[in-house]
Write a structure and sequence with these properties.
It is built from 11 helices and 13 strands. By secondary structure, it is an alpha/beta fold. Strands 1, 2, 3, 4, 5, 6, 7, 8, 9, 10, 11, 12 and 13 form a 13-stranded mixed sheet that branches. The structure holds S-adenosylmethionine (SAM) and iron/sulfur cluster.
Length: 326
Amino acid sequence: MARDHFGRNIHYLRISLTDHCNLRCVYCMPEDMTFRPNAELMQDDEILRLTRLFAGLGFDKIRLTGGEPTVRANVVEIVRGIAATSGIRSVSMTTNGLLLSRLAKPLAEAGLQRVNISIDSLAPEKFHRLTRWGKVEDVWAGIFAAEEAGLTPVKLNVVVVAGYNEKDVIDLARLTLEHPWQVRFIEMMPFAGATELQVSRMVTAAQIQEWIEAALGTLEPANGGKLDGEARLFRLPEATGDLGFISSVTRPFCASCTRARLTADGILRMCLLREKEVDLLTPLRAGASLDDLRQLILDAVWDKPWGHGLSEGTIPLNRVMSEIGG
Ligand code: SAM
Ligand code: SF4
């Protein structure tokens, strides 16, 4: 089991399959973003070798992310390999959903269990403005394909950006009246690439909750008041699904964090919002022994920072969000 020096059991790995993406969300990356050449990214066998190493150290939960994980060549086979890895009991994915109408079924058959799909507005023009390139109807098709493929409970991720989609939170929250989905509102975090927008247009989870309650009624705590991952869960009166609030900036959940992140170029990052990183891919390619690689991981886990430093004004600027994997 991998523990950090605060006693947290670190067993959840988010693997970024690629930094490439088929959208350019304004809060994530600049429109003229340049991506890493494929040779710099972990190859399929390298992802699986590192997954086996992490699994051997007690990591049992994997989330695939990016960039956009579904644009990765061989994504279905990568999922199959990860799901078949001894010790891995949960494989999920965060995706923009654009390609799910084609991929949901094969991914589910390969062993993917659940998806989080990002959708920041139900209004086509606003969705397009936020994502720069996206069509909301493609995401809708992806959501229903995911549901049909049994990738449930479907969770929808919403980043709220002032001046873009504040009003849309009501319609998004309303989805839970009819659908057994979890609609999660995520506070925008600052990174490189879009820092000015991320800082100046951030909307707090408390504010979003207030707008929803004013429009749709008082929310009841759900899930026995316990966090679901990083989300505080609530339910609208008569709803079939839940609302989640992820207040990473204003009310961080660092004390209960069990995560590590592996970037698409094979770098281990122990806190999303801290710049410190440990390169695993270079030693792997240089022929490091399994013991040496294990020790690199265990040392990085041991040194996992307690939490982020946003309240002191420390913003991680060495990578944009899509390069780390959300
Ligand atoms: N492309 C996939 C997607 O959009 O779902 C997966 C990668 S994306 C980086 C993962 C999640 O991070 C998405 O839900 C996205 O909305 C969210 N995200 C991106 N930039 C963010 C930011 N600056 N603050 C908070 N969440 C952000
Ligand atoms: Fe792509 Fe996801 Fe970033 Fe949007 S949030 S640009 S879909 S990686």
